[in-house]
Specification:
The chain is an alpha+beta fold. It is about 30% helix and about 50% strand.
Amino acid sequence: MPSADDRYAISELLNRMAYYYDEGHLDELGACFADGAIMSMQIAGGDMVAFEGRDSIMELYRGAKSSQTDVRRHDITNIMFDDSGDTLAVTSYLTLFATEHAETKLLTTGVYRDQVTEIEGEWKISRRHIDLDSAY
């Protein structure tokens, strides 16, 4: 099991990633991924899509952010750690809210399944899989 300090740092990484996206700090968000990171996503059990490398991942995030007209809030909870394999796995829940025209809605919920790696004293996402419970 990772140390309490490592669990705190990794939890902080996940929270910062949500904040960086929501506030439009996409360069900072990109720095949270390892260079060769891989991300995949599946929405409501549909086809899985994958993105290889930080640039490809950030192209997705930049495109999504530029098309938004609402204010998003990614709420990350229930962070759990599993170091029984070769890498440190972290699972967390996502609740995604959006506010537009003074109305706040729940957009979707889901699960992040991450693998994190410590690089030069900083934790980075090396693999991320996102399972969204519904399309939005």
